Amino acid sequence: MSSNGIVLELNQLSCGYGDTTVVSQLDIHLRAGDIGCLLGPSGCGKTTTLRAIAGFEPVTGGHIQLDGREISRPGQQVPPEQRQIGMVFQDYALFPHLTVEDNVGFGINRDPQRRKVVKELLDLVKLGAYGKRYPHELSGGQQQRVALARALAPDPKLLLLDEPFSNLDGELRRRLSAEVREILKSRGISAMLVTHDQNEAFSVSDHVGVLKDGKLQQWDTPYNLYHEPATPFVASFIGQGYFIRGQLLSPDTVQTELGVIRGNRAYQLPAGSAVDVLLRPDDIVGQEPSSLKAVITGKTFLGATTLYRLQLPTGSTVESIFPSHDDHAVGESVGIRIAADHLVVFAARGSVNVHAQLPLEQVLDNENAAESA
Ligand SMILES: Nc1ncnc2c1ncn2[C@@H]1O[C@H](COP(=O)(O)OP(=O)(O)OP(=O)(O)O)[C@@H](O)[C@H]1O
After folding, report:
1. ipTM, 2 decimals?
2. Taking the CB of the first residue and of the last residue of the chain, which one, N or C, has fewer CB atoms within 10 A?
3. In a 10 Å sphere around its CB, with 0-12 CB exposed, 13-18 middle and 19+ buried, how is residue 166 labelled?
4. Which of 21, 48, 213 to mutate for ligand 1's pocket (most ligand atoms within 8 Å of CB)?
5. What are the pLDDT digits (tens) for 322-343?
6. Which CATH class is domain 240-347?
């Protein structure tokens, strides 16, 4: 680890294919022992970034440092096998003709401790009894655990995981991702994951970078990405929610159709500015009696809770999570109240009409237009 506790640094990193820049001026610092994640829509450059870190793609701008040592810059790069980076791929990529033990020990053939290390790692991934089996005799989840043990055997400085759970489904996927986090944390292993699954990103990682069109929108904790999104894109890509139009009354209060809402900070916009206020389903709760009424237009039963889509008197739509025993029918009018600790506000890109509600897609289109202007 370098003296500042950072294991991986991407500084103004750019890379691409031929003349096409795919990833542009990325700044990411991963602390030693942390699990980072690159998250974003298909084609935003997640895998390209991971491959650049691994040394499979040259960089066209900026540089990458691992453990205080520069490993990539334009025209110069340390070969992948000399980077001390382990990789786990979506398709496991195990050697079919080698036993589980030999797969795990493959990268440490000359290590006198090989047997001991292999045993320890197989125990770590809960496959101690499977050493003599071949990959085709294992389930998908077990094969991925072997791949993880194999990647950890040479004691890498950093582990890269490219969509490691996407060949698995449902419950197994959720369980294995939690297990992998526990394994990495128990050994203090630094890792960077690529996924397009937000739940997976949140359950595995300490920090998540949201990419859009090869640019980093925000590198932050899952909590902050959800509650303090830095851009309208992050606000819409992460979690659920609707924007309603508002007007800033003072640095921390906004007039909206749901009344005056006080935020948790001073917003850097002049009083009177038109703003778009993000309301997540957990920012609106049921309350009876309440002068604030909304009509239920949609209902999704989620088990412990129910997600309701609500229409406000002005026609705007918001969503709200109710405890599931607080059961209502579509068409019913319910009392609500705002319970937003973290009020997320962006400068509105349209008219100052407080009651106008922009569809999210339009907010994003406006943002795109502003970016390319
Ligand atoms: N070998 C290649 N040659 C040329 N273009 C490529 C190559 N690999 C990827 N690209 C392009 O680079 C862009 C980013 O691809 P990348 O695989 O990094 O995206 P991603 O975010 O990982 O997407 P996904 O979630 O779909 O895997 C895409 O437009 C893709 O078409």
Report:
1. 0.97
2. C
3. middle
4. 48
5. 999 999 999 999 999 998 877 8
6. mainly beta
